[in-house]
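Reminder to self: tokens first, then the designed residues, so the page reads top to bottom the way the pipeline ran.
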């Protein structure tokens, strides 16, 4: 694989935030840290004009996503399956127009010009996040998991989930790694604003 293809392509990427739900978060190990990092990733994505999709697992039982996540998402998918791909995530990603780097205009007319890279964060890492990541890989997306914005009730489950996703073909990253790959250069006019959001 050429080196350029190993990096996240900002023009063809979206952020997916899985199940940061109000009744679930108090049980998540280091929940405040995980939530803060997810918000940082979302703020960088918004600054750069990227789409953010949230998911909620059975919100009637687990409640909606916490307000800090819900307000950052352009769309929230309500799901019954642990794998959000089985409840419309792939279709939601297909509806996102991508921007041409050369013309900076929305375009979905070019074959293969849609979302290719999904940056993924969420809870619980070993259940819904894992199964959604595997579903996205099966659907042909490149998946970049923001490890420091993913959580489980037990840290051991988080570690196992990250190991399994890595072995399945997802790429593990941190919030800062994702932010700087999206930026590509300090010459980007939004560099200083992004820097403020990740500090």
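Designed residues (199 positions):
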């Amino acid at each position: 694989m050429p080196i350029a293809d190993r990096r996240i392509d900002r023009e063809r990427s979206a952020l997916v935030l899985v199940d940061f739900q109000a009744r679930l978060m108090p049980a998540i190990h280091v929940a405040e840290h995980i939530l803060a990092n997810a918000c940082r990733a979302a703020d960088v994505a918004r600054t750069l004009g990227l789409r953010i999709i949230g998911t909620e697992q059975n919100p009637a039982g687990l409640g909606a996503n916490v307000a800090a996540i819900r307000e950052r998402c352009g769309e929230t998918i309500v799901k019954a399956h642990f794998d959000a791909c089985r409840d419309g995530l792939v279709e939601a990603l297909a509806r996102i127009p991508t921007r041409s780097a050369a013309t900076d205009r929305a375009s979905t007319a070019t074959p293969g010009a849609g979302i290719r890279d999904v940056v993924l964060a969420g809870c619980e890492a070993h259940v819904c996040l894992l199964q959604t990541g595997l579903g996205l890989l099966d659907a042909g997306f490149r998946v970049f998991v923001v490890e420091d914005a993913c959580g489980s009730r037990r840290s051991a489950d988080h570690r196992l989930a990250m190991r399994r996703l890595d072995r399945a073909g997802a790429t593990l990253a941190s919030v800062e790694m994702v932010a700087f790959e999206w930026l590509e250069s300090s010459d980007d006019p939004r560099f200083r604003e992004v820097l403020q959001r990740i500090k």
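Residues 3-198 form a domain with the Rossmann fold fold (CATH 3.40.50.850).
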